[in-house]
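Hi L.,

As promised, tRNA(Ile)-lysidine synthase:
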Amino acid sequence: MTDSSPLDDNAFSHIMADPALAGSACSLAVACSGGPDSMALAFLLSRWCRDNGRRLTALVVDHRLRQESAREAETVGARLAALGVRVAILVREGPKLTRDLQNQARLARYGLMLSWCREQGAGDLFLGHHLDDQAETFLLRLARGSGVDGLSAMSPIEMRGGIRLVRPLLDIPKTRLVATLEQAGQAFVQDPSNLSDHFTRNRLRRLMPTLAEEGMDARRLADTAKHLSRARQSLEFYTSQHLNRSGRLYPHGFVRLERATFLEAPEEIRLRSLSKLVSALGGADYPPRFDRLQRLMKRLEADADGAGTLSGCQLLVRGGRIWLAREPSAVSGPVPLEGVGSFIWDRRFRIMLSATKKWPKETDFFIGALGIDGWRQWQNSGREISGFSILPAFVRRGIPALWRGDKLVCPLSTQKSDHWQDHGIEEIHLIAGELFGKTAFSSLNMRTM
């Protein structure tokens, strides 16, 4: 029998007692469409943040799919504000979505929310996915022929674009979330698209009662996804071990692999390793498509020398080694140095500005890529950073650098340097743990060249 008891503050605090869910970020965001799932999470999370000294902002996305969408977003925003929650309404710009509507809307929504989190320094984005969503996602992916990763469905914690996605309600059925709002007298909206048979998820949802009669209820399906998640975690563990054994991550944001060692692993581990490298170094929000990944792997296996690009990542095979770095055209643009504090550049580097030097609002100092011109200026200066000259040209181009106007001050290394500390930069480090997970490329491999 489905549990329909409301969640109270104690029950939610028990869920959030897991340190992995609570995290350490002071500034949190919660995605809220105004529906019962996300509204219940915003309601519970707002009270938890109040009691735990966290700052919460609710992100409401106006997809511009209907004429009344702006008014609907404002209504949701007003309900959240009445709970004492800060609200940011994010509006999707561009042409109207017409094909693959739900998927395109989801991609646009996540793009807007992740960009907001990065710009505003919110480290965690909370999502209202629940037990029924987990079961439906499992069925959707089963119908698409997904492998272990897809059938593992959603994870409680997921890194995407440098932001933690946190799903604290995956073990909670929707009936309990609706009951929570009804007990609190909190209004919510019902999305009319959830009633349309045009969408596969809705059609599968209608099958759930029939499946439950055969023993495949939401809890059973979600438990199956958990079993597969454990298998995925094992594969990820061996993938990290493989990366540690065959490669080296440099603090300047690129990777060098020993080709022979890399190709020794079983095919599944090789493909997972390559996918992780391409996703992290290329900066994409999603892994590369499997068919393209497989073609690139076959090229690495066949050619002792060669090159390729995939999802913003560039590769070069030379002298028994594979070099991987962000494709120069995918590197972020320059960011001016203003004020104090820290910021993330190019989704790879956290730059900490000195508290003793305050940058003016208008400054000609900025962080950007070294590029071709920067490398030429650095060579002409007579100064050198050990090992830079042996790097492939595309690797050097994406290295972070401090600029003043069109004049290079210096390349930035994670090794402290008077060149950039004199200009008010306190610290720079590669967010490797967020890029690859804490077990891939151990600290022993994080030395400079």
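Confidence is low (pLDDT under 50) at residues 442-449.

Thanks again for sending the construct details.

K.
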